[in-house]
Amino acid sequence: MDFPFDMNALFPERITVLDNSLSAGRRAHGRPDPLLQISTVIDELGKASAKAQQLPAPITSAAKLQATRHHLYLLKDGEQNGGRGVIVGFLKVGYKKLFLLDQRGAHLETEPLCVLDFYVTETLQRHGYGLQLFDFMLKHKRVEPEQMAYDRPSPKFLSFLEKHYDLKNSVPQVNNFVVFSGFFPSRSAVQLRKVPPKKPEGEIKPYSLMEREVVREEQRALPWPFVRPAGPPLSPPLLPSSPQSRCLSVGSSPSRALLRPAVAPGSPSHQLNDSCRARRTSSLNRSRLSFH
Ligand SMILES: CC(=O)SCCNC(=O)CCNC(=O)[C@H](O)C(C)(C)COP(=O)(O)OP(=O)(O)OC[C@H]1O[C@@H](n2cnc3c(N)ncnc32)[C@H](O)[C@@H]1OP(=O)(O)O
């Protein structure tokens, strides 16, 4: 991806780590970083990533990065574009409070580092750039791939994780985060706490909101399970098979959702949870067949 300005001047390093300051590190001649140009790069990458993943709206933008404590790793090839450099791709990570199910189905409160967005320019995919970005991030964050959670990984990303890090056995969840079998034993007691049996309402957030779900939530007036008033939907309804389709339970905002008690097998809620789990699993299976 090339831009009408010099990437090498903007991003001195091959891989730049950006946080909410959007500072690329160098302050040429005492002047601040050209924030506008950096913002343009992030916004365009976010749009390209959303398009590649068929998301309704970007989950990465300069404004979103400024508003969070996420880290964005940006990879350039400094020799392309007549020596001005091109942006190859990016990887965005951040810590999230998540309620996850371990292998035995017990709810656990966790706060892992999550991969939230990941994109390499179409023409440069399968050249090892994604691996360079990911390896850099692992070292920078001092984390192992199996200790991380993955926010609705795409088929390509699942293939990437299996190929490079041998991550293939995911532990079923009721939200759309994916964790692999090494996740639970490898976490320290501090990072992984078993959920106490009872907590005051509102304190526990059962299913954490995904970045990409927030995009949809921002367009909604009322959270599930409240029924929307009559009138046209604010965003198009999702087909069960569409890439944006979600388990309804994930749509509950963490700031609004309450921990629901266990439900009896056969009850409507139980069936809903089952159908959500089945849908995610089937979507993972389906996605493995649909690489192109
Ligand atoms: C939580 C999330 O962020 S989910 C969103 C992930 N992002 C996307 O799906 C956007 C589109 N895809 C991409 O941008 C890239 O393919 C990435 C970021 C997933 C991987 O980056 P790359 O530079 O292509 O990865 P890299 O070259 O290091 O590794 C290649 C491996 O990735 C996987 N992969 C990459 N592209 C593809 C593809 N088109 N089809 C299937 N697998 C692919 C394969 O395992 C591939 O190995 P192979 O070529 O031997 O089959």
Automatic annotation (TrEMBL):
First and last residue of the signal peptide: none
Catalytic reaction(s) noted: L-lysyl-[alpha-tubulin] + acetyl-CoA = N(6)-acetyl-L-lysyl-[alpha-tubulin] + CoA + H(+)
Marked site: Crucial for catalytic activity: Q53
GO MF annotation list: tubulin N-acetyltransferase activity
Any one of the GO BP annotations: neuron development
Name of the gene: LOC113090768
Enzyme class: transferase
Native source organism of the sequence: Carassius auratus (Goldfish)
Name this protein carries in UniProt: Alpha-tubulin N-acetyltransferase 1
Phylogenetic classification of the source organism: Eukaryota, Metazoa, Chordata, Craniata, Vertebrata
HAMAP family, alphabetized: mec17
Purpose: Specifically acetylates 'Lys-40' in alpha-tubulin on the lumenal side of microtubules. Promotes microtubule destabilization and accelerates microtubule dynamics; this activity may be independent of acetylation activity. Acetylates alpha-tubulin with a slow enzymatic rate, due to a catalytic site that is not optimized for acetyl transfer. Enters the microtubule through each end and diffuses quickly throughout the lumen of microtubules.
Major localization listed first in the record, in broad terms: cytoplasm
Domain N-acetyltransferase: residue ranges: 1-184
UniProt entry tagged with the keyword Transferase: yes
